[in-house]
Write the structure tokens for this entry.
Amino acid sequence: IFKNIFMDSDYIDIQKENEKSSWFGFSVLLKGNLKDKRKQVLKYLEYKGIETRPIISGNFLKNPVLKHLKYSVYGDVSNANKIDKIGFFVGNNHIDLTDQLSALKESLDYLNKTL
């Protein structure tokens, strides 16, 4: 249902299905008109009662807990920064979410036209 609703969207990219995906949530990456407006998008979705979460905690290097841990970073973290800046999860469930996913689509369509 999620893939069918958002398949042709010009303002988000959705996760690819490889028949091994864990669909506990739907990954959304903002693009086009919404690409640099994650904060406004999440605020509006919250206003509409649509909960979101960061994708795998966003860029974990920004987490304050790191001041208590010994760690190393190897290589470039540009993809983590990108996901943190333009990505979020919406939840999935075993029940039919057609109405909720349609409300998400309606909200994102509205934002795409107004932001």
Q: What stands out?
A: The chain is about 35% helix and 10% strand.
